[in-house]
Give the backbone structure.
Amino acid sequence: MRTALLLGLIWSGLWMAFLYVIMKYFPWEMLHDYPEDVRKASTLPEPTRKQKRNAKIFSGIGSIIIFGALILFGLLRFRAERADFLTLFWFLFIIAMSWNVIDLLVMDWLLVCTVRPAWLIIPGTENCSSYSDYGYHFKGFLIGCIYTTIMALIFAGIDYAILRFLIWG
């Protein structure tokens, strides 16, 4: 359990770094995650073809690193000891849910709702009241719980197959 929580913190750090770069350099990529009034008030210019390409490249590489790390965490933890699928699922679920909780508490409630650093504010939306809507972010957290469960199931399946057929023999 302690190992899963520690890895959850590491995985959360990867996510936070990834989201920081997205928000700093490719903010239009995250506009869909903001409340409706922010999306409507946004004065973000339309990204150029080069900006769109760079965003796709960064997102692709970042996703490979983030999700590759999740696979690697399970493989490294259980490479030397046999575990059943459910054990792998719970291990990865704790890691992934750690990010969901940190995203809510740190990224959403602390940074977006309370501190509001300039790199998180979409141009033209500085006066939007929904930045302080804690309930909006809590709903996102609840949706994230569903995605976290599905993701943990998928990645536990990947890890279990790799462990069973390639590592444990």
User: Anything to note?
Assistant: The helical segments are 2-25, 36-41, 49-78, 85-115, 134-167. The mean pLDDT is 96.
